[in-house]
Amino acid sequence: MQEMFQRALKIMDIVLSKDLDCILLVDVSNVFYVSDFRGYEGIFALIPKEHDPLLFVPKLEYERAKEESKIHVEQYTNFSAALIESLRNMKCKKVGLCYKRTPHTIVNTIKTKLPNIELTDVSENIANVRMVKDTDELERIVEAIRIAEKGLEEALNTVIDGISELNVAAKAEYSMRISGSEKTPFPTIVASGPNAALPHAVTSSKIVRKGEVVIVDLGATFKGYVSDLTRTISVGKVDGKVKDMFQAVLEAQKAAIRAIKAGIKASDVDKEARKTLEEYGYKEYFIHNTGHGIGINVHELPIVGEKSKNILKQGMVITVEPGVYIKGYAGIRIEDDVLVTKTGCRILSRFKKDLVD
Amino acid sequence: MQEMFQRALKIMDIVLSKDLDCILLVDVSNVFYVSDFRGYEGIFALIPKEHDPLLFVPKLEYERAKEESKIHVEQYTNFSAALIESLRNMKCKKVGLCYKRTPHTIVNTIKTKLPNIELTDVSENIANVRMVKDTDELERIVEAIRIAEKGLEEALNTVIDGISELNVAAKAEYSMRISGSEKTPFPTIVASGPNAALPHAVTSSKIVRKGEVVIVDLGATFKGYVSDLTRTISVGKVDGKVKDMFQAVLEAQKAAIRAIKAGIKASDVDKEARKTLEEYGYKEYFIHNTGHGIGINVHELPIVGEKSKNILKQGMVITVEPGVYIKGYAGIRIEDDVLVTKTGCRILSRFKKDLVD
């Protein structure tokens, strides 16, 4: 018998440890996790205790799925019918579902058609498994980071007085795409001047002007895994106040990174960033978490925030991205992607940060 | 009192017609529909019978949401707490939810914390409302189509013997981005030679060669609304067989488009395409639906397929995209975006199709 795909095996471990008959996955990211198949909506995967894992796709995806998938592929004609049929055929009584990523309508269908099935939420178990990356996942993320760094390089070379935010984003995205990025995992943010005060600013046709800072927040996707990096760049000389904000964010990021190692609370990493910003007098202007896990999705566990319950573990990959945002004035954010190790961490992104003067 | 945002008003009509106290929306596309706010996960909207519609966002989105949203904005600290609190405060007993786009975990939370609430599935009602576009939505889609046509133009100018699929995609996406596309709504497909036989081929580093056809399937996003266009381009002269496939698909598309008008079954449009391909001997090689609605999502109702129950209505915007796929050999697809009118249809995309010789 062929060895089982490593990531599918980790989900199988949940099936066994929770004494389930199978786990049913219906969302694109979990299905990709167990199969390596880059699908669209309308696919599902079954990890049954007593059979090989199965991927179900519609007819138009069948040939591609057979090429890409690391688990056995079946094609279906009707999604719901195939789902019910396969649960019934495999005599699954105890079924694990990721409630956080399963539309209520699917739960309803199962409860109606197969009233004897006992459903269990495995959202947390799956998220916990997905938090810790294996070597192959890490290599993909590192490649996605290398590609994103090419995007940052292009942005840095492009940002001058008179160019539009959109133009900078377009050039950075082109550079990532040509370097092998499968897609931008989130809309690239190029936010200049007062726009930089909005953490999730929408890149606009605004013209970048001398004396402004520009936040560039972008990511790439490589073999289904993403990166997420931010740099803040000044156009010519900026106010002393902006330099002070930049210094504060840089120090906050360093403090947070210093705190990272396996076994500590994610909230303690956040605390370090927040404490530094408080010392600089910017605590109230830091209006989001210090970071989050990355992987197949841009936002995965752990949450690196004040109220996070997550404990850092070896093999997690997290962003560290403190920021300071002053409405109508300016914003600063610096973000790296960091691997948690046993004794500390490894900063996976290498792009220079000292870009404001 | 301010006039209510037109799209929110349409959801309010569902609240009233189904005698609900409110509709709760938790997914990004429905929340955008009622608010015009381009958010990420972790936002929700309430359309209550007896209050103004409300958008809830986390702190980091508050300032941007106030600028973008067409409905009142509140900020929350804890998503679930805010959701439960607002349903309780507004004394909502009968709550409509889009079961298809609501994670089961949210339904669970509501049932646990507010056991007296009666939930109703309004998935179909919302999908039906969103199917028919108003003038503003149509203008956004048309602009997204104009931008996508610039991408097709760039692809057409770029496709030559020796270039990689990825390179063509990168250039087309750059051209769309610089023309104002907010994001590619789906991964651009550039599939050459045998790759073109996979309807959802992943664009690769494969080099395009003389004698091959290249399928280019791309879209743009403008003010949150998308386009979806496909052309098949030959590189130099192709086999007579490929020309025949192309002719068949072109005729099938024409036949389908001729059938479109308000009042007819979507399945009848599909039937016309399928019948034409059968006449050419390619019926079994057409392995997907003839089309689908577009709007905020790339795949919306109506489904233009064999088993569709949808009836076409004035104001729907659908794709018409028959295709023929012969494994290991080649594939052809031609896709336009079409507005359903009272007496027929208006083809919104204008890009030339005669690109195979």
Write a compact overview of the structure shown:
Helices cover 36% and strands 21% of the residues of chain A. Chain A is α+β, with helices and mostly antiparallel strands and 357 residues long. The mean pLDDT of chain A is 97.
**Proportion of helical residues of chain A:** 25-40%
Provide the CATH architecture of the largest domain in chain A. Alpha-Beta Complex
- What is the typical, i.e. mean, pLDDT of chain A? 97
- The quaternary organization reads as homodimer
Helix/sheet category of chain A:
alpha+beta
From the N-terminal CA to the C-terminal CA of chain A, the straight-line distance is 61 Å
Name of the CATH homologous superfamily of the largest domain in chain A: Creatinase/methionine aminopeptidase superfamily
CATH topology of the largest domain in chain A: Creatine Amidinohydrolase
Strands of chain A, count:
18
Explain the overall architecture:
The structure is a homodimer of 357-residue chains. Chain A has 357 residues and is an alpha+beta fold. The model of chain A has no long low-confidence stretch (mean pLDDT 97). In chain A, a hairpin with a 2-residue loop joins strand 9 (221-222) and strand 10 (225-226). The first copy, chain A, starts with 5 loop residues before the first helix and ends in a 10-residue tail after the last strand. In chain A, the strands form six sheets. A six-stranded mixed β-sheet of chain A has the order 4-3-2-1-5-6. In chain A, strands 7-8-11 form a three-stranded antiparallel β-sheet, with helices on one face. Chain A folds into two domains: 6-129, Creatinase/prolidase N-terminal domain (Creatine Amidinohydrolase, Chain A, domain 1, 3-Layer(aba) Sandwich); 135-347, Creatine Amidinohydrolase (Alpha-Beta Complex). Chain A has ten helices and 18 strands. The longest helix of chain A is centred in the middle third of the chain and has 24 residues, at 135-158. At the A-B interface, helix 3, helix 5 and helix 8 of A face helix 3, helix 5 and helix 8 of B.
